[in-house]
Amino acid sequence: MTIRNPILRGFNPDPSIVRVVDDYYVATSTFEWYPGVQIHHSRDLANWQVVARPLSRASQLDMRGNPDSCGVWAPDLSYAHGRFHLLFTDVKRYGQTTVDGAGGASLRDFHNYMVTAEQIDGPWSDPVHLNSSGFDPALFHDDDGRSWLVNMLWDHRPDRRRFAGIVIQQIDLDTGRMVGERRGIFEGTALGFTEGPHLYKRDGWYHLLVAEGGTERSHAVVMARSRELFGPYEVHPDGPVLTAIGTGRTTPHGADLQRAGHGDLVDTPTGETYMVYLCGRPLPRSDRCVLGRETAIQPMRWGDDGWLRTSDGQGRPQLDVATIPGSPEHSPLIEHTNFDSSILPTTFQWLRTPYPDQLFSLEARPGHLRLHGCETIGSHFVQSLVARRQQAFRYHAETRTDYTPHHFQQAAGLVCYYNATKFHYLHVTAGDDGQRQLQVLSAIPRDTQRSTLTPAVSIGLGPVALRVQVDHETLHFGYRLGDAREWVWLPEIFDASILSDEATLPGMPNFTGAFVGMACQDLSGTGHPADFGYFHYEEQRDA
To answer: Known catalytic residues?
Structure first.
Protein backbone atom coordinates (compact mmCIF):
# COMPACT_ATOMS: atom_id res chain seq x y z
CA MET A 1 0.00 0.00 0.00
CA THR A 2 1.26 3.48 -0.88
CA ILE A 3 0.37 6.62 1.04
CA ARG A 4 1.14 10.23 0.28
CA ASN A 5 2.96 12.39 2.83
CA PRO A 6 2.31 14.35 4.95
CA ILE A 7 0.07 12.10 7.03
CA LEU A 8 -1.13 14.95 9.27
CA ARG A 9 -2.03 17.70 6.83
CA GLY A 10 -2.06 21.22 8.17
CA PHE A 11 -1.35 20.02 11.70
CA ASN A 12 1.51 21.41 13.68
CA PRO A 13 4.88 19.81 13.91
CA ASP A 14 7.49 18.72 16.43
CA PRO A 15 5.92 15.24 16.39
CA SER A 16 6.52 12.73 19.14
CA ILE A 17 5.36 9.16 18.55
CA VAL A 18 4.83 6.20 20.88
CA ARG A 19 3.45 2.69 20.41
CA VAL A 20 1.45 0.93 23.12
CA VAL A 21 0.86 -2.68 22.01
CA ASP A 22 -0.92 -2.16 18.64
CA ASP A 23 -1.83 1.51 19.07
CA TYR A 24 0.27 4.42 17.83
CA TYR A 25 -0.03 7.95 19.20
CA VAL A 26 1.49 11.13 17.81
CA ALA A 27 1.60 14.33 19.87
CA THR A 28 2.14 17.67 18.12
CA SER A 29 2.59 21.30 19.12
CA THR A 30 -0.32 23.73 19.47
CA PHE A 31 1.57 26.94 20.39
CA GLU A 32 -0.86 29.69 21.51
CA TRP A 33 -3.98 27.72 20.54
CA TYR A 34 -6.12 26.20 23.28
CA PRO A 35 -6.54 23.40 24.41
CA GLY A 36 -2.86 22.53 24.45
CA VAL A 37 -1.14 19.62 22.64
CA GLN A 38 -2.89 17.56 20.00
CA ILE A 39 -2.71 13.76 20.07
CA HIS A 40 -3.60 11.63 17.03
CA HIS A 41 -4.20 7.88 17.16
CA SER A 42 -3.65 5.19 14.52
CA ARG A 43 -3.45 1.42 14.28
CA ASP A 44 -1.79 1.27 10.86
CA LEU A 45 0.45 4.39 10.71
CA ALA A 46 -1.61 5.62 7.76
CA ASN A 47 -5.01 6.71 9.10
CA TRP A 48 -4.98 9.13 12.02
CA GLN A 49 -7.69 10.67 14.19
CA VAL A 50 -7.53 13.28 16.95
CA VAL A 51 -8.21 11.56 20.28
CA ALA A 52 -7.04 14.05 22.90
CA ARG A 53 -6.03 17.60 23.68
CA PRO A 54 -4.72 16.99 27.20
CA LEU A 55 -4.04 20.55 28.42
CA SER A 56 -7.61 21.75 28.82
CA ARG A 57 -7.97 23.54 32.16
CA ALA A 58 -6.50 26.53 33.96
CA SER A 59 -4.55 24.44 36.45
CA GLN A 60 -2.63 22.90 33.54
CA LEU A 61 -2.08 25.80 31.14
CA ASP A 62 -2.76 29.53 31.00
CA MET A 63 -1.22 31.30 28.00
CA ARG A 64 -2.78 34.75 28.35
CA GLY A 65 -0.08 37.23 27.39
CA ASN A 66 2.10 34.69 25.59
CA PRO A 67 3.48 36.10 22.32
CA ASP A 68 2.44 34.71 18.95
CA SER A 69 3.94 31.29 18.16
CA CYS A 70 4.93 30.81 21.79
CA GLY A 71 2.93 28.79 24.30
CA VAL A 72 3.12 25.01 23.86
CA TRP A 73 6.23 23.81 22.05
CA ALA A 74 7.44 20.31 21.12
CA PRO A 75 5.49 17.89 23.32
CA ASP A 76 7.09 14.54 24.12
CA LEU A 77 4.84 11.52 24.64
CA SER A 78 6.08 8.30 26.20
CA TYR A 79 4.61 5.31 28.01
CA ALA A 80 6.22 3.66 31.06
CA HIS A 81 5.08 1.79 34.17
CA GLY A 82 1.47 1.74 33.02
CA ARG A 83 1.16 5.49 32.43
CA PHE A 84 1.44 7.99 29.62
CA HIS A 85 3.91 10.79 30.31
CA LEU A 86 3.49 14.02 28.34
CA LEU A 87 6.20 16.68 28.51
CA PHE A 88 5.83 20.15 27.02
CA THR A 89 7.32 23.63 27.08
CA ASP A 90 5.25 26.74 27.83
CA VAL A 91 7.15 29.62 26.19
CA LYS A 92 6.34 32.90 27.94
CA ARG A 93 8.75 35.28 26.22
CA TYR A 94 10.45 35.36 22.86
CA GLY A 95 12.62 38.43 22.45
CA GLN A 96 16.02 40.02 22.46
CA THR A 97 17.41 42.81 24.59
CA THR A 98 20.43 44.63 23.20
CA VAL A 99 23.38 45.37 25.44
CA ASP A 100 25.18 48.68 24.85
CA GLY A 101 24.11 48.63 21.23
CA ALA A 102 26.25 45.59 20.36
CA GLY A 103 25.74 41.87 20.63
CA GLY A 104 22.59 41.32 22.64
CA ALA A 105 21.27 39.11 25.41
CA SER A 106 18.46 36.91 24.13
CA LEU A 107 16.18 36.81 27.15
CA ARG A 108 13.52 34.13 26.81
CA ASP A 109 11.40 32.19 29.27
CA PHE A 110 10.93 28.45 28.72
CA HIS A 111 9.13 26.42 31.40
CA ASN A 112 9.06 22.64 31.04
CA TYR A 113 6.30 20.53 32.58
CA MET A 114 5.04 16.96 32.80
CA VAL A 115 1.47 15.66 32.98
CA THR A 116 0.47 11.99 33.22
CA ALA A 117 -2.55 9.78 32.56
CA GLU A 118 -3.40 6.09 32.60
CA GLN A 119 -5.49 6.43 29.44
CA ILE A 120 -4.72 8.55 26.40
CA ASP A 121 -8.04 10.41 26.70
CA GLY A 122 -7.37 11.23 30.33
CA PRO A 123 -7.97 12.39 32.88
CA TRP A 124 -4.58 14.09 32.68
CA SER A 125 -2.90 15.27 35.87
CA ASP A 126 -1.99 18.79 36.85
CA PRO A 127 1.51 19.63 35.63
CA VAL A 128 4.74 19.19 37.53
CA HIS A 129 7.40 21.79 36.77
CA LEU A 130 10.64 20.12 35.64
CA ASN A 131 13.04 22.92 34.71
CA SER A 132 13.34 26.13 32.70
CA SER A 133 16.83 25.73 31.27
CA GLY A 134 15.77 25.39 27.64
CA PHE A 135 13.01 23.87 25.53
CA ASP A 136 12.09 20.57 23.85
CA PRO A 137 12.10 18.31 26.94
CA ALA A 138 11.86 14.55 26.37
CA LEU A 139 11.98 11.43 28.52
CA PHE A 140 14.24 8.43 28.03
CA HIS A 141 13.32 5.26 29.93
CA ASP A 142 16.46 3.13 30.25
CA ASP A 143 16.37 -0.66 30.50
CA ASP A 144 17.73 -0.49 34.08
CA GLY A 145 14.46 1.11 35.26
CA ARG A 146 15.76 4.66 35.51
CA SER A 147 14.29 7.56 33.55
CA TRP A 148 16.10 10.63 32.26
CA LEU A 149 15.09 14.07 31.09
CA VAL A 150 16.87 15.54 28.08
CA ASN A 151 16.37 19.03 26.69
CA MET A 152 18.25 21.65 24.71
CA LEU A 153 20.12 24.27 26.77
CA TRP A 154 19.52 27.97 26.10
CA ASP A 155 22.41 30.42 26.58
CA HIS A 156 21.06 33.98 26.74
CA ARG A 157 24.45 35.70 27.06
CA PRO A 158 25.76 38.07 24.37
CA ASP A 159 28.09 36.55 21.78
CA ARG A 160 27.39 33.00 22.94
CA ARG A 161 25.89 30.13 21.02
CA ARG A 162 22.17 30.40 21.87
CA PHE A 163 21.56 26.70 21.24
CA ALA A 164 24.15 25.49 23.70
CA GLY A 165 23.73 21.73 23.29
CA ILE A 166 21.80 18.89 24.91
CA VAL A 167 21.68 18.29 28.67
CA ILE A 168 20.47 15.28 30.64
CA GLN A 169 19.30 14.77 34.22
CA GLN A 170 17.72 11.87 36.06
CA ILE A 171 14.03 12.18 36.94
CA ASP A 172 11.89 10.45 39.55
CA LEU A 173 8.80 9.54 37.52
CA ASP A 174 6.62 9.11 40.62
CA THR A 175 7.17 12.66 41.87
CA GLY A 176 8.51 14.50 38.84
CA ARG A 177 11.47 15.67 40.91
CA MET A 178 14.86 15.97 39.29
CA VAL A 179 17.67 13.84 40.73
CA GLY A 180 21.32 14.87 40.81
CA GLU A 181 22.84 17.50 38.55
CA ARG A 182 22.32 18.11 34.86
CA ARG A 183 25.12 17.12 32.53
CA GLY A 184 25.92 18.21 29.00
CA ILE A 185 26.13 15.27 26.59
CA PHE A 186 26.17 16.77 23.08
CA GLU A 187 27.17 20.17 21.71
CA GLY A 188 25.79 19.60 18.22
CA THR A 189 27.32 19.76 14.76
CA ALA A 190 28.28 22.59 12.45
CA LEU A 191 24.64 22.88 11.34
CA GLY A 192 23.88 24.50 14.69
CA PHE A 193 20.48 25.19 16.29
CA THR A 194 20.68 21.87 18.14
CA GLU A 195 17.25 21.06 19.63
CA GLY A 196 14.49 18.41 19.73
CA PRO A 197 16.47 15.63 21.48
CA HIS A 198 15.28 12.03 21.76
CA LEU A 199 17.25 9.12 23.18
CA TYR A 200 16.93 5.43 22.26
CA LYS A 201 18.86 2.30 23.21
CA ARG A 202 19.65 -0.44 20.70
CA ASP A 203 22.21 -3.26 20.76
CA GLY A 204 24.07 -1.67 23.64
CA TRP A 205 24.28 1.75 21.96
CA TYR A 206 22.65 4.95 23.14
CA HIS A 207 21.37 6.74 20.04
CA LEU A 208 20.73 10.46 20.33
CA LEU A 209 18.47 12.05 17.71
CA VAL A 210 18.35 15.85 17.46
CA ALA A 211 16.99 18.51 15.13
CA GLU A 212 19.47 20.97 13.68
CA GLY A 213 19.73 23.78 11.15
CA GLY A 214 16.67 25.72 12.34
CA THR A 215 13.10 25.09 11.24
CA GLU A 216 13.39 26.68 7.79
CA ARG A 217 15.04 25.29 4.64
CA SER A 218 18.21 24.12 6.44
CA HIS A 219 16.32 21.87 8.87
CA ALA A 220 17.66 18.35 9.42
CA VAL A 221 17.54 15.24 11.59
CA VAL A 222 20.98 14.44 12.99
CA MET A 223 21.99 11.36 15.00
CA ALA A 224 24.92 10.44 17.22
CA ARG A 225 25.65 7.42 19.39
CA SER A 226 27.65 6.32 22.41
CA ARG A 227 28.23 3.21 24.48
CA GLU A 228 27.77 5.36 27.59
CA LEU A 229 24.70 7.42 28.47
CA PHE A 230 26.76 10.53 29.18
CA GLY A 231 28.88 10.17 26.06
CA PRO A 232 31.04 11.03 24.29
CA TYR A 233 28.66 10.81 21.31
CA GLU A 234 29.97 10.05 17.83
CA VAL A 235 28.10 11.78 14.99
CA HIS A 236 26.60 9.70 12.19
CA PRO A 237 29.25 9.20 9.46
CA ASP A 238 26.82 10.13 6.65
CA GLY A 239 25.88 13.50 8.10
CA PRO A 240 22.16 14.27 8.52
CA VAL A 241 19.95 11.20 8.60
CA LEU A 242 17.09 13.09 6.98
CA THR A 243 17.01 16.53 5.36
CA ALA A 244 15.69 18.41 2.33
CA ILE A 245 18.75 20.69 2.19
CA GLY A 246 19.79 21.16 -1.43
CA THR A 247 16.67 19.64 -2.96
CA GLY A 248 14.79 21.59 -5.60
CA ARG A 249 11.12 21.77 -6.42
CA THR A 250 10.15 18.55 -8.15
CA THR A 251 6.34 18.55 -8.18
CA PRO A 252 3.62 21.04 -9.10
CA HIS A 253 1.22 22.82 -6.76
CA GLY A 254 3.65 23.08 -3.86
CA ALA A 255 3.46 19.38 -3.01
CA ASP A 256 7.17 18.69 -2.53
CA LEU A 257 8.44 18.29 1.04
CA GLN A 258 10.84 20.91 2.36
CA ARG A 259 12.05 21.92 5.83
CA ALA A 260 12.29 18.27 6.94
CA GLY A 261 13.54 17.77 10.48
CA HIS A 262 12.64 17.37 14.16
CA GLY A 263 11.96 13.64 14.07
CA ASP A 264 11.10 10.79 16.41
CA LEU A 265 11.28 7.01 15.98
CA VAL A 266 8.91 4.13 16.62
CA ASP A 267 9.20 0.38 16.09
CA THR A 268 6.31 -1.77 14.88
CA PRO A 269 5.46 -5.06 16.62
CA THR A 270 7.28 -6.87 13.80
CA GLY A 271 10.46 -4.82 14.19
CA GLU A 272 10.27 -2.21 11.42
CA THR A 273 11.38 1.31 12.32
CA TYR A 274 9.56 4.44 11.18
CA MET A 275 10.39 8.09 11.62
CA VAL A 276 7.82 10.85 12.02
CA TYR A 277 9.12 14.33 11.28
CA LEU A 278 8.00 17.84 10.47
CA CYS A 279 8.02 19.23 6.96
CA GLY A 280 6.55 22.05 4.89
CA ARG A 281 4.93 22.15 1.45
CA PRO A 282 5.64 25.47 -0.32
CA LEU A 283 3.08 27.18 -2.50
CA PRO A 284 3.99 27.11 -6.21
CA ARG A 285 4.49 30.83 -6.85
CA SER A 286 5.33 32.43 -3.51
CA ASP A 287 7.32 29.47 -2.09
CA ARG A 288 5.52 30.02 1.22
CA CYS A 289 4.05 27.31 3.47
CA VAL A 290 0.52 28.39 4.41
CA LEU A 291 -0.18 24.95 5.90
CA GLY A 292 2.62 25.54 8.36
CA ARG A 293 4.88 22.72 9.39
CA GLU A 294 3.12 19.40 8.84
CA THR A 295 3.84 15.88 10.05
CA ALA A 296 5.18 13.17 7.71
CA ILE A 297 6.28 9.56 8.18
CA GLN A 298 8.59 7.16 6.38
CA PRO A 299 10.33 3.83 6.94
CA MET A 300 13.91 3.67 8.14
CA ARG A 301 16.44 0.83 8.30
CA TRP A 302 19.30 -0.06 10.61
CA GLY A 303 22.48 -0.84 8.70
CA ASP A 304 24.98 -3.57 9.39
CA ASP A 305 27.17 -0.89 10.95
CA GLY A 306 24.44 -0.12 13.50
CA TRP A 307 23.53 3.30 12.08
CA LEU A 308 20.04 4.39 11.09
CA ARG A 309 19.30 5.45 7.50
CA THR A 310 16.30 6.07 5.27
CA SER A 311 15.10 2.95 3.48
CA ASP A 312 16.73 4.03 0.20
CA GLY A 313 19.85 5.40 1.88
CA GLN A 314 19.39 8.85 0.30
CA GLY A 315 18.46 10.71 3.49
CA ARG A 316 15.65 12.62 1.75
CA PRO A 317 11.99 13.05 2.71
CA GLN A 318 9.64 10.89 0.65
CA LEU A 319 6.32 12.03 -0.79
CA ASP A 320 5.16 8.47 -1.42
CA VAL A 321 5.64 5.83 1.25
CA ALA A 322 5.02 2.35 -0.09
CA THR A 323 5.51 0.04 2.88
CA ILE A 324 2.85 1.18 5.34
CA PRO A 325 0.08 -1.44 5.46
CA GLY A 326 -2.79 1.03 5.88
CA SER A 327 -5.36 2.24 3.39
CA PRO A 328 -5.52 6.00 3.95
CA GLU A 329 -8.37 8.22 2.94
CA HIS A 330 -7.09 11.44 1.37
CA SER A 331 -10.27 12.55 -0.37
CA PRO A 332 -11.02 16.25 0.09
CA LEU A 333 -12.52 16.97 3.50
CA ILE A 334 -16.08 18.28 3.78
CA GLU A 335 -17.09 19.32 7.28
CA HIS A 336 -20.33 21.02 8.33
CA THR A 337 -21.00 22.08 11.92
CA ASN A 338 -24.45 23.22 13.08
CA PHE A 339 -23.48 24.00 16.69
CA ASP A 340 -26.34 21.87 18.00
CA SER A 341 -24.24 20.43 20.85
CA SER A 342 -23.23 22.00 24.15
CA ILE A 343 -19.62 20.95 23.48
CA LEU A 344 -17.42 22.65 20.91
CA PRO A 345 -16.33 20.09 18.27
CA THR A 346 -12.68 19.08 18.51
CA THR A 347 -12.05 20.58 15.08
CA PHE A 348 -12.11 24.04 16.66
CA GLN A 349 -9.69 25.83 18.96
CA TRP A 350 -9.39 29.27 20.50
CA LEU A 351 -6.52 31.46 21.66
CA ARG A 352 -4.59 31.39 24.93
CA THR A 353 -7.20 31.56 27.68
CA PRO A 354 -8.23 28.55 29.82
CA TYR A 355 -11.59 30.25 30.43
CA PRO A 356 -13.56 29.71 27.20
CA ASP A 357 -16.82 30.81 28.85
CA GLN A 358 -15.46 34.35 28.63
CA LEU A 359 -15.23 33.97 24.86
CA PHE A 360 -18.16 31.89 23.68
CA SER A 361 -21.29 29.94 24.57
CA LEU A 362 -23.09 27.05 22.87
CA GLU A 363 -26.06 27.28 25.23
CA ALA A 364 -27.01 30.97 25.23
CA ARG A 365 -28.85 30.47 21.93
CA PRO A 366 -29.40 26.80 21.07
CA GLY A 367 -28.16 25.85 17.62
CA HIS A 368 -25.71 28.74 17.55
CA LEU A 369 -22.18 29.56 18.62
CA ARG A 370 -22.37 32.85 20.50
CA LEU A 371 -19.12 34.82 20.55
CA HIS A 372 -18.88 37.50 23.20
CA GLY A 373 -17.33 40.73 22.02
CA CYS A 374 -13.87 40.88 23.56
CA GLU A 375 -10.54 42.55 22.84
CA THR A 376 -9.06 43.51 19.48
CA ILE A 377 -8.36 40.86 16.89
CA GLY A 378 -4.74 39.99 17.54
CA SER A 379 -4.93 40.50 21.31
CA HIS A 380 -2.56 38.30 23.32
CA PHE A 381 -4.96 38.09 26.24
CA VAL A 382 -8.74 37.67 25.78
CA GLN A 383 -9.61 37.44 22.10
CA SER A 384 -12.93 35.99 20.97
CA LEU A 385 -11.83 33.92 17.99
CA VAL A 386 -12.84 30.30 17.34
CA ALA A 387 -11.19 28.65 14.34
CA ARG A 388 -10.04 25.45 12.68
CA ARG A 389 -6.90 24.68 10.75
CA GLN A 390 -6.50 25.20 7.04
CA GLN A 391 -5.59 21.72 5.79
CA ALA A 392 -5.55 22.16 2.01
CA PHE A 393 -4.25 24.64 -0.56
CA ARG A 394 -7.73 24.99 -2.07
CA TYR A 395 -10.82 25.28 0.11
CA HIS A 396 -13.86 27.37 0.85
CA ALA A 397 -15.43 28.14 4.20
CA GLU A 398 -18.63 29.89 5.14
CA THR A 399 -20.69 30.85 8.15
CA ARG A 400 -23.89 32.74 8.87
CA THR A 401 -24.03 35.39 11.55
CA ASP A 402 -26.93 37.15 13.23
CA TYR A 403 -25.31 40.33 14.45
CA THR A 404 -26.37 43.95 14.86
CA PRO A 405 -23.48 46.23 15.85
CA HIS A 406 -24.34 49.60 17.33
CA HIS A 407 -21.19 51.51 16.38
CA PHE A 408 -17.76 51.22 14.77
CA GLN A 409 -16.11 49.65 17.85
CA GLN A 410 -18.16 46.49 17.45
CA ALA A 411 -17.39 43.91 14.75
CA ALA A 412 -17.88 40.22 14.01
CA GLY A 413 -17.31 37.95 11.06
CA LEU A 414 -15.20 35.42 9.17
CA VAL A 415 -11.42 35.49 9.52
CA CYS A 416 -8.45 33.82 7.84
CA TYR A 417 -5.86 34.07 10.59
CA TYR A 418 -2.22 33.26 11.18
CA ASN A 419 -1.43 35.57 14.10
CA ALA A 420 -1.76 39.17 15.27
CA THR A 421 0.40 40.43 12.40
CA LYS A 422 -1.11 38.30 9.60
CA PHE A 423 -4.82 37.97 8.85
CA HIS A 424 -7.68 38.84 6.48
CA TYR A 425 -10.94 39.59 8.32
CA LEU A 426 -14.33 40.00 6.62
CA HIS A 427 -16.48 41.60 9.30
CA VAL A 428 -19.82 43.22 9.94
CA THR A 429 -19.59 46.55 11.74
CA ALA A 430 -21.45 49.88 11.82
CA GLY A 431 -20.64 53.20 10.20
CA ASP A 432 -20.86 56.63 11.78
CA ASP A 433 -24.56 56.66 10.90
CA GLY A 434 -25.11 53.41 12.80
CA GLN A 435 -25.97 51.45 9.64
CA ARG A 436 -24.49 47.98 9.14
CA GLN A 437 -21.63 47.57 6.73
CA LEU A 438 -19.11 44.99 5.56
CA GLN A 439 -15.36 45.57 5.39
CA VAL A 440 -12.16 43.55 5.20
CA LEU A 441 -9.39 44.36 7.63
CA SER A 442 -6.00 42.91 6.66
CA ALA A 443 -2.78 42.80 8.64
CA ILE A 444 0.14 42.45 6.25
CA PRO A 445 3.73 41.88 7.40
CA ARG A 446 6.38 43.36 5.16
CA ASP A 447 9.44 45.37 6.19
CA THR A 448 7.11 47.09 8.65
CA GLN A 449 3.63 46.16 9.81
CA ARG A 450 0.84 47.46 7.60
CA SER A 451 -2.93 47.25 8.01
CA THR A 452 -5.46 47.88 5.26
CA LEU A 453 -9.22 48.39 5.38
CA THR A 454 -11.36 47.99 2.26
CA PRO A 455 -14.17 50.45 1.39
CA ALA A 456 -17.38 49.75 3.31
CA VAL A 457 -20.28 47.89 1.67
CA SER A 458 -23.65 48.86 3.14
CA ILE A 459 -25.97 45.98 4.07
CA GLY A 460 -29.38 45.89 5.65
CA LEU A 461 -30.58 44.16 8.78
CA GLY A 462 -30.94 40.44 9.29
CA PRO A 463 -28.65 37.42 9.13
CA VAL A 464 -25.78 37.53 6.66
CA ALA A 465 -23.77 34.61 5.32
CA LEU A 466 -20.03 35.14 4.83
CA ARG A 467 -17.78 33.06 2.60
CA VAL A 468 -14.10 32.78 1.75
CA GLN A 469 -12.61 31.00 -1.26
CA VAL A 470 -8.88 30.19 -1.11
CA ASP A 471 -6.92 28.88 -4.08
CA HIS A 472 -3.22 28.60 -3.26
CA GLU A 473 -2.02 32.24 -3.16
CA THR A 474 -5.37 33.94 -3.83
CA LEU A 475 -8.22 34.66 -1.43
CA HIS A 476 -11.71 36.04 -2.20
CA PHE A 477 -14.52 37.04 0.16
CA GLY A 478 -18.23 37.02 -0.54
CA TYR A 479 -21.52 37.52 1.27
CA ARG A 480 -25.19 36.65 0.95
CA LEU A 481 -28.10 38.46 2.60
CA GLY A 482 -31.27 36.88 3.91
CA ASP A 483 -32.60 34.12 1.66
CA ALA A 484 -30.56 35.12 -1.38
CA ARG A 485 -29.10 32.16 -3.27
CA GLU A 486 -26.26 33.87 -5.11
CA TRP A 487 -23.05 35.06 -3.49
CA VAL A 488 -21.95 38.67 -3.91
CA TRP A 489 -18.17 38.67 -4.27
CA LEU A 490 -16.08 41.60 -3.10
CA PRO A 491 -13.91 43.01 -5.89
CA GLU A 492 -10.63 42.78 -3.99
CA ILE A 493 -8.28 39.82 -4.41
CA PHE A 494 -6.26 39.17 -1.27
CA ASP A 495 -2.86 37.53 -0.83
CA ALA A 496 -3.38 34.21 0.96
CA SER A 497 0.37 33.55 1.07
CA ILE A 498 0.91 36.05 3.89
CA LEU A 499 -0.75 33.49 6.18
CA SER A 500 2.52 31.58 6.34
CA ASP A 501 5.70 31.16 8.35
CA GLU A 502 7.77 32.85 5.66
CA ALA A 503 5.82 36.13 5.51
CA THR A 504 7.05 37.85 8.64
CA LEU A 505 8.40 40.87 10.39
CA PRO A 506 12.08 40.66 11.39
CA GLY A 507 12.76 38.76 14.61
CA MET A 508 9.27 37.32 15.01
CA PRO A 509 8.60 33.61 15.64
CA ASN A 510 6.35 32.00 13.02
CA PHE A 511 5.41 28.40 13.66
CA THR A 512 1.66 27.88 13.63
CA GLY A 513 0.12 27.66 10.13
CA ALA A 514 -3.12 29.23 8.91
CA PHE A 515 -6.57 28.98 10.51
CA VAL A 516 -10.05 29.96 9.35
CA GLY A 517 -12.89 30.76 11.72
CA MET A 518 -15.19 33.25 13.43
CA ALA A 519 -14.37 36.30 15.53
CA CYS A 520 -16.12 39.06 17.50
CA GLN A 521 -14.85 42.29 19.07
CA ASP A 522 -16.37 44.98 21.24
CA LEU A 523 -13.76 47.64 21.92
CA SER A 524 -16.22 49.67 23.96
CA GLY A 525 -16.12 46.99 26.65
CA THR A 526 -19.83 46.08 26.73
CA GLY A 527 -19.32 42.54 25.43
CA HIS A 528 -21.90 42.84 22.64
CA PRO A 529 -22.24 39.30 21.17
CA ALA A 530 -22.57 37.78 17.71
CA ASP A 531 -24.38 34.51 16.98
CA PHE A 532 -23.13 32.08 14.31
CA GLY A 533 -25.58 29.49 13.00
CA TYR A 534 -23.14 27.10 11.31
CA PHE A 535 -19.62 26.74 9.98
CA HIS A 536 -18.85 24.92 6.75
CA TYR A 537 -15.35 23.93 5.58
CA GLU A 538 -14.83 22.18 2.24
CA GLU A 539 -11.64 21.31 0.42
CA GLN A 540 -11.10 21.01 -3.34
CA ARG A 541 -8.57 18.82 -5.08
CA ASP A 542 -5.51 20.55 -6.42
CA ALA A 543 -6.02 21.42 -10.08
So the answer is: 14, 195
